Each structure stands twice: as structure tokens, then as C-alpha cells.
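Exercise 7.
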Amino acid sequence: MNRTRREFLGQSVLGTIGLCVFPRSLDAAMQAGQEASVPGRGLVFDAKDLPRLRETIRHPRFAPYWKSLTDADLEADRRFLTTELKLNNHVRHMLQVRQILERTSFVFALTQDARQLEIARLAIDRLLQYKRWDYFLEGGEETIGLQRAPEATLAMSFARDWLDGVLSRATKDEMERQIAEKGAPACYRTLYGMKYPDRVKGWGFDPESDYAFRFDLHRWPLILNSTNLKVIPIAGLGVAGCLLRGKHDQAQRWLDMALQSARAFSIMFGPDGSYDEGAGYWGYTAQHLALFLEVLWRTTGQDERKLINFPGTSRFALQMSMPTAGRPEDCVNFSDAGNMGDISVAAWTARHYHDGLAQHVAMTTGEVRSHYPVIWFDPAIEPAKPGPDLLDARFANDWVVSRSGWTEDDTVVALRSGGPSNHEHADRNSVILKAHGERLFHDPFKAAYSHTEPHWLLRATEAHTAVLIGGKGHQYHDGREGTNASWAEAKIIDYQIGNQQLVVTSAATGAYRLVNNDVNLVTRTIVFVKPDILILFDRVRLAAIPLPVQLRFQVYDDDGRGKAVAASSGFRIERPGATVRGAFYTPGACTVRTDTLKLPAEHGVHPYVEVESGGSLDHHVLTVCTIQQAGKEHGTMNAQATGRGWKVSGAHNGRTVNVAIVTVADLPRVVVEI
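Solution. The predicted structure, written as C-alpha cells, is:
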């Protein structure tokens, strides 16, 4: 193409805003194959799928999401695109342009609404005007694509496909040219650097970008190789390769790199489908992996759709979810997970594996947050409700989640053992407790991504329902390289499930020893007698220097309705729908207090209860908790020291419980009688 970029832009949509004429419907264009970007099938759906998609958007599960698309303020979109957009702002502005393009091009594909097409065309032009499609450089010159370039490549590729019959030949050529020049090479360069980190000239920030934060990126080719930021360029590069096969001489090379990288990344998912970066990043990552594999299969016939345990990863999402009326997307939020994230891959899994449980996840877990589940939903798949075999999970990464059932009133207990990962917190052996729709032992949301901000504190051990030794948590990094993994390890050393009960012990000795070499043993044992009795036994042993030990219990107060009350040897945490009452037992003296994390008010109020066991070489702290619906009385539970440990007994909600905990060995032995 001989025209200059300026000539192209001068003759494009910016000069024709207001025109509402398009040559022919997308249905007709796709059916006739007019100037189809790829001969045969569309990238993610065909013309014959449009009636099904139009039916899907009327389904109660998908109608609210569809309404959010069609109710979007197109005049606000136009104003942003024409007067507010900054072409050196990638983090927020380029993200918003991409989202507008995805939304309007998809809505137009289903509705033929000329107003949507007009804004889609404008968004295309504005993306084309960006000098670079990402804000990271290699060697200070060449763009690397971690999020914005892959995302822009995907949005442009799908818009090119969905708007095929209504865009001019010049516009489609320019879209393909920029995908091939600004998108695919940036994604390829990223994956090449992760494959050959010794060949990287040095990753850094684009000095022209207005991104406010700066990190040390020299190890990022190694660090990001095992994170979600590898899958996003895989998807972008792979889809670009599929789109431009037969049109660009590098397309097959891009496809080869994308597929090779996808295979290498697949081991980041456990054999059971678990994912170390947590529930929030699970959906984003699994969706992009499935997206690439789906487009690859549709356009080339190469079937790699069993690359990971997709049915298992849908079950992982289900078991990490925490139902509630107040937070429909709530989850066991280990790491930076703020919510359940995108559940698109469950709809894709249900369709391609004829998996009823994945269909159940797609229809009930979290919320629909993208157009992909609309595209992938198959109404012929009958949802299958989860059975009792899924109530208790010890995932391959040593995370444990146990629940009494699947309703909002049921209790969920989660224990964060296992190793480090990107987006992690200093949270080994921390516990999350939820019952009757209320978070009772909380893991705070919205920790800072930059170590220079005060709410980086929310990543620390002291911000979790976890153990401090001499006021200090276990090892964590200083954040200069971002939110990457620490060196902290914990390991499940005992896991037993029985009739309405769970017993699990996790050892985090090594994680704490990295901070204090005098640490000899750190274990936490959980006894969950379903649905409403929870016992924690914490053991901390030091070699030579006596220190106090603190146990913290974090209170959810983001809505200002959480309350913590301390007693001489116990506590009470109150939420509008539920309460938890705890009593502490130690061989020596202990003190109980309440406080809040030391953070500026704009980062929320974070109350907690803390019990401190006085200076000693060997700490045994038993915490006996009862869980109750708001307005109801707690039962009576007591613990007595024996020569070999503790005997816990009592009655709560009409049940008599006896628990013997033998603590003479490093691994406690627990016997539960109900």
C-alpha cells in the first residue's frame, strides 16, 4: 500500500463522522463471503450462529450483560474518542478505546445498528493513530506487548472479522497492516524474550508514555514467563497469525511461536485445573488460552483444545467461589483476586466437552462480564449441579477450600498453603471464613500494585488472618520488580476429610525462617466441623531466643458494617448477617485487643482482632470458634488442657461435639466425635 498513514487517516472516519450508511448487512456479507478476512469460517462465530446469539442475549443469564452493552452512552464514547483521548496514555485510555471497539463491533454484528458502527469506525481510527500499541520497550526502541498490544490486536482482529462487509477495503487493509506492524511483532518479541531471556537487550518503559509508575524490569522476561502476562500475547499473536495466514509472510511464524508458547505455559495450570495467580486471574488467563485454541481450530483445523484440563479448571472456579447476596462475584481471594473474574471459559468448556458441570459454572458462578460466553453458550448442554465430592478440595497447588454446601447460607473455609506465585500476598497459612453470606475472617481487597503506595501494606502478613512472630510476618519481596513471586513456601502435611468434617495441617516454617533464622517450626491445623464450628491450632517453636507470637483475625468492613469486640480471652466479630465468636487457650498468658491497619482513610478501614501469646520458645495457641446466623445465640464450647494436648467439647446449634487434639508431636493428631 503506497498511501501514507496521514493520507489514510485524513480520508477515514474522522472525515465522515455523522454518516450512517453502510453497504450491506453483516449477515449477507458473511453468507456471501464478501472480502472475507479468512476463507471459510469466522474467527469465533459464523453467520449461521447469529440467530443463536440473538436468542442467547434474551436469556436471563445474559440479558443484563447485553443491556449494559446496548445502554452504553455512545455520545460519551464519541466525546472521549474525539476530544479526551491521549495517545500516550495506554493504561487507561487505550484500554477504553479497545473496550469501546469490542463492544460496538459486537453489538453491531448482532443488531446492524448504524450508531454502533459509527462509533466502532471511530474507535478503529483512534487505535490506528497510536504510535505504539504498548508502553514497554526492548532496548529502548522496539515495542513489547504485554497487555495493550495483545488486547488491541484481538479487538482489531475481531472487528476486522465482524465488520467485514461494512468497512472499506482501505480501512481493512490498514487494520491488517497495523496488526502486522504494531500488534503481532510486539507480541512475538515478548514471547521470544521469555523463551530466550539471555538474548533480551533490556525491557523498560516507553519514556513517551504517561504511566506514573516505574519498576525494575530487567528480570521481567523471567518473572512474567510463568504469569498471565504470557498468555495474553500468546492469544494476540495466535489470533493475528490466524487472521493473516496466506496474507503475510510472517503469519505462520507467529502461529508457531504462539502455539509453542501456549504448550510451554500449559503447565502453569495444575493437572486438576488449579491456577496459582488466584481466582481473579484464572478467568482472564484461561479465557485467552481457550480463545487462541478456538480460533486456531476454526481457521486451520488444528485441534489443541485439550491442552490443559479445561473441565478441571471450571471446577477450580466453582470451588473457589463464595456465594453471597451482597457480592455475587465473591471468591476465595488469595493473591490479588478481587472477585471471581471472567467465567467465559466455563461456557466454552461446556460447549466443546459437553460438560454439564461447566455449564452450571457458566450459568451460576460470578457474573457475565464479556461477550465470549454469549458467543460460546450452548443451550443444549444441561447444567449438572455439583455433588458432595466437590465440597472439599485440596488443589494441586496446596490450596484448601472446604464448604458445607453451595447456598449463600453455607460456610466456606479456605487455607492458603502452597508456594509463591505472581500477584501473591504474604499470606501463608492464612484463613478465609465466610458464612450466611458474610465474610467473617477476611482477606483485604485492592492491595496496591506499586510498592510506593501506602496500601502495599495490604499484601503483608499483618493484613491477613495469619501469624506474626515477634510482630513480623514471613518473607516477602520489597516490590521494586512489581507484584512478582516471593520465596515463601508452605506445605500441607496432613489432609483428612470425613463425614461433615475437615482436618488439615499446613507447615510454613521455611517462609518464616527466611525472616528469622531462629524459627524452628510454624504449623497451623484447622478442624472444621461443618457447618458452624471452626478450630485453629497454631504451633510456633523457636530455637534459642524467646519471642511473643501474635494471631490476627481480619474483619471485613468495606461497607462500614463490620465490628470486632475483644474480651479477656476471646473475641466476637459481627456482620449484619452473621457472627463468629472465638475463645483462645494457651499454656501461658495471652492478651487480646482490637485495632485497625495503619493506612490513610482513602484506602479503607481495616479492623482486626489480635491475640498475643507472651514471649516463649514454644507457643501452642488454640482458637475455638462458633459461627452463627445474626440474631441467634451461640452455643457453649470449652477446651481443657490434657497431658498430651487439648480436649474441646460442647454444644452448638443442637449438636454435641468432642474433639481431641494430641500435640506431643510436630504434626498434631485430631479425633472428632459428633
